[in-house]
Amino acid sequence: HFLTRYGRRYSPGSLEFQKREHFFQESIRRHEYLNSPVLAPYENNSAIYGINRFSDLSPEEFKAIYLQSKAVELPKYVTTSAKEAI
Amino acid sequence: LPARFDWRDKNLVTPVRNQLSCGGCWAFSIVGGIESAYAINENLLEELSVQQVIDCSYEDNGCNGGSTINALHWLNKTRVKLVRASEYEFKAQTGICHYFPSSDFGVSIRDYKAYNFSDIEEEMMTQLINLGPLAATVDAVSWQDYLGGIIQYHCSSGEANHAVLITGFDRTGDIPYWIVKNSWGSTWGIDGYVHIKIGQNVCGIADTVSAARV
């Protein structure tokens, strides 16, 4: 269902297929962890984690492709009341 | 402050885009902010070129990464006019910087503000209303698996690795949250958006916040 839904064309049995299947299974384990009510007490509208189009990527691959913003240190915003106090 | 505010309700936010396999979130974030700032001023919503920022912001590394602040610094220093997205299309890879005649349509920035709002997210709401959608950086490691709902856990501050655009907030329910536009297509998250709890600087949403004036 995942392969069809997200248009993946891995040949069944190929090394690439096995690698992607492994990452997919890892992601299922990660979802169990992220959705665990022990770690994140369930409240109304709490975030839900599950299968999406990134589920066959390893966290390293995901990071390398999608998390490429560099952090910058900025000065703290000073509110008007704080400025007046100064 | 109103209980709920979202620039989308005024039709001043462009549709969610997809950065594909290009690490150009930083460019999508600030271009989204400039599009809205221009729409607020001129009442005309135009999709501007993200590819132009990716190719031309020499302080950044194109699809290999960059910073919202560097890009705003470059736009402010050079007064480069961002052309329409249809004129300088997104290619999902870094290319050679194209130049356009100054008589062509384009949007340049006059100034920008960039601050750390951690501990004062209430003030950030005021700035969102006054300045328009805010570009922000976040820790998005757990977003690989996000489907929907309000993120409250599994997200750190001080470890930013992704850039997004905050378009609004909602405090009508039990958990107040920021309404955040992402650039991973409209099938990801909540129609391309993610909700992040307000307060406690969840995901570092208040660490690096910026807005341009056009």
Features:
heterodimer, A: 86 residues, mainly alpha, 2% strand, B: 214 residues, alpha+beta, eight-stranded mixed sheet, 4 helices, 9 strands, 22% helix, 20% strand
* Distance, first to last CA of chain A: 62 Å
Give the overall form of chain A. Answer: elongated
Decide which structural class fits the backbone of chain A.
mainly alpha
Order of helices and strands of chain B: EHHHEHEEEEEEE
| Unreliable runs of chain B | none
Write up this protein:
The complex is a heterodimer of chains A (86) and B (214). Chain A is elongated, with a radius of gyration of 21 Å. The termini of chain A are far apart. Chain A has 86 residues and is an all-alpha fold. Chain A is built from four helices and one strand. The mean pLDDT of chain A is 90. Chain B starts with a strand and ends with a strand. The longest helix of chain B has 18 residues, at 25-42. In chain B, strands 1, 2, 3, 5, 6, 7, 8 and 9 form an eight-stranded mixed sheet that branches. Chain B has helices spanning 25-42, 50-56, 68-78, 121-131; strands at residues 4-6, 111-115, 134-138, 146-148, 150-151, 162-170, 177-181, 193-197, 209-213. The relative contact order of chain B is 0.22. Chain B is an alpha+beta fold. Chain B is 22% helix and 20% strand. Classes of the chains: A mainly alpha (86), B alpha+beta (214). At the A-B interface, α2, β1 and α3 of A face α1, α3, α4, β4 and β5 of B. β1 (48-49) of chain A pairs antiparallel with β4 of chain B.
Task: Outline the fold blueprint.
The complex is a heterodimer of chains A (86) and B (214).
Chain A: H1 2-5, H2 15-35, E1 48-49, H3 59-66, H4 80-85
Chain B: E1 4-6, H1 25-42, H2 50-56, H3 68-78, E2 111-115, H4 121-131, E3 134-138, E4 146-148, E5 150-151, E6 162-170, E7 177-181, E8 193-197, E9 209-213
Parallel strand pairs in B: 5-8
Antiparallel strand pairs in B: 1-6, 2-9, 3-6, 3-9, 6-7, 7-8
Describe what is shown at a glance.
Chain A has 86 residues and is mainly alpha-helical.
